[in-house]
Amino acid sequence: MKIEDILSAEELVSLRLRALYAENGYSLYKMSKFEEYDLYASNKDFLESERIITFTDTTGKLMALKPDVTLSIIKNTDLSPGEVKKVYYNENVYRVPKNSPAFREITQTGLECIGRVTPELISEVVRLASQSLSEISGSGVLDVSHYGLIGETLDSVSLSADAKKRIFEALCAKNAHEIKSICEKEGLSASETEKTVALSAIYGPAGEAIPALIKVFGENKNVLELKDLVSYLKKEELTNGVNIDFSVPGNIKYYNGIVFKGYVKGLPNYVLSGGQYDRLLTRLKKNVKAIGFAVYLDALEQLETAGGEG
Description:
The protein is of the alpha+beta class. The chain folds into two domains: about 1-135 and about 265-310, BirA Bifunctional Protein, domain 2 (2-Layer Sandwich), CATH 3.30.930.10; about 140-265, 2-Layer Sandwich (BirA Bifunctional Protein, domain 2), CATH 3.30.930. Helices cover about 40% and strands about 25% of the residues. The chain contains twelve helices and twelve strands. It has a nine-stranded mixed beta sheet with strand order 1-5-6-12-11-10-7-9-8. A three-stranded antiparallel beta sheet has the order 2-4-3. A hairpin with a 5-residue loop joins strand 3 (about 55) and strand 4. Helix 4 crosses helix 10 and helix 9 (about 205-215) runs antiparallel to helix 10 (about 220-235). The protein starts with 8 loop residues before the first helix and ends in a 5-residue tail after the last helix.
């Protein structure tokens, strides 16, 4: 009897992903099923769902069944100066999935790099995200954004805080008309408006999008980071299925730099989500950098139901 006849698609993918991460030098990280509620309550907008299962333990502390893995890893990781911790996990989390009315126990696999995060390590993580999609399906797409470039563009012109927020929301919705309207109402010049709207217009295969980025924004630090990332992926022969897309949604209060979402054919929502989250580390009083991603294995149930690849 083959192992494929025993295990579900979710379990098979989980095994393949864990092997991939271990082969690339990541160590397995195990954690408790619960943490103090305050950790999640103070960072609810970082979570996939704000609804959390809580209970009071024997000491009177309010605890929570973990709805997220990243926050728990950050809390329990101590590093020496210059050190980097590279870990992967396969954990159950407890939350309300998209389009579901009830809590579920969900298996989530992913990896985190915390500490001295270099450009080379960022490229490695994006590569592993792309390879993770290949382990799920032969038709994966990874959309890559750069929140540093978005922030720099919005900060370079005279915009109110509310206007920046609305432009970011319009950008995530791919609504170029709304971005232009907001810029004009804020009194930006034609050239400033054109540059801001360009964030929503530049989209496509990673190799093709870089020249368009350089033409509009020049070779600044953020553009060069994307350029170097794409060059690395070309060497690894992984640019097929990788797009530059500044509409990638996320919380700009926590994320910075490279941010990405992964999709597979047959599912309307992303199955992989990640990026650099230095701002979250700063908020949690950790003076280090971090990048990671999670693969939402519960989505594979929908893929099997739809008759897709698993």
